[in-house]
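Quick question, first post here. What does this chain look like in 3D?
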Amino acid sequence: MRYSIKAFLKRLFVFTVLFCLILPGYADGQRRITREEYIETYRDIAIEEMRTNGIPASIKLAQGILESGFGNSELATRANNHFGIKCNGWTGRSVLQDDDAKNECFRAYNDPVESWRDHSQFLLTRPWYAPLFKLDPTDYKAWAHGLRRAGYATNPRYAQLLIRVIEENNLSQYDKMAMNMLAELPASPNLRNASSRPARPARTQTVEDFAPVSFEAVRTVQTNNRVKYILARQGDTPERIAEEMSMRAWQIERYNELENGRTIKPGQIVYLQPKRKQAVKAVHVAQPGETMYDISQQHGIRLDQLLSRNNMQEWQQPQPGQKILLKGRAR
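> Answer (accepted):
Ran it through. C-alpha cells below.
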C-alpha cells in the first residue's frame, strides 16, 4: 500500500488535532489506549519523521510503544513524554519521576507530537548516535542494536525487545511507505547560507509544520570537539554541501579526508572546519565493523593523528573491543 503525499499530509494534520483534543481525556483515566490504537495514531508522524530525519518509522513506533506503554505510562500522560528522554540541559518544562534513581528530571511537552519530534532531534544532535545514521534506514535490526550499544536504554535486552515489537506488529511496512514517498518527491532548490540557530521554546504545531519537506531542509550546524559539523543527508556530495554552506568543495573534501574512495553517506558527520589533533575523550573502544576513519569522524580528530597515536598504518583497522587512544600516545 502506498500513500500519496497530499493525502498523507492531510491525515497527519487531522491526527495532530485529535492528539490535542482526545489524549488529555486519556490522561484523566477515562480509558487506556490499546497497542493497535497507538500505532494507528502515531504511524503518520513516524513516517514523516523518517522522511525528514532518516530515523526508521518502525524504530520510532517501537520505542514509543516500549517507553510509553502505548501512551499509557505516567510519564506519557503527565508530561506527553513518549520516549523517556531526561532533562540533560533541557530548558523547557519538566517533571520529576523515579527511574534509575529517585526523582529524576524528565522533559515535559505541550503535546505528544512535540515529544516525537524532540526524540528525532535528540538522536540527531548527540555524536554517539551518529553511527546509526550510516545504517540502511530500512534495517531496523541494525538500528535496534545500535541504539542499545549507544546507551539509549540500560536494559541489556533492549534491542531484542524493539525487534520483537516491530515484527509482531509489522511496523517495517511504515519504513517502506516512507521510502516510497521519498522516491516520489521532486527535487527542490538548495537553501544557501544556512547557519545554526538557538533553540526556541516548543510550540503547538500548525498545518504549516506539516508542509512537504525532504532532506533539503535547512542545515543545523553543531559542534563536536570544538569543530563545526552538519549531518549528511540523502544525495549529499561535497559540491552540494559546499554550495549550501557557502564553502568550496575542496574544503569539505579536505576537512573530512574524503580520499581513497571515501564518499559521503546519509547520517555521516561532515565537518565544516579542520578536525583537531586530539579529542576531549581519552579512549574509544572499537565496535564491530568500525574503521579508524569512522572513529576519527566520530570524535573530530584527524585520521593521521589518530593513526600516529596508536602506532598504526593507514591500512590497519581496529579489532572489536580494542582501545583506541584519542589523546596521548601508545607505548
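The longest strand covers residues 227-231.
The domain at 217-325 is CATH 3.10.350.10 (Membrane-bound Lytic Murein Transglycosylase D; Chain A).
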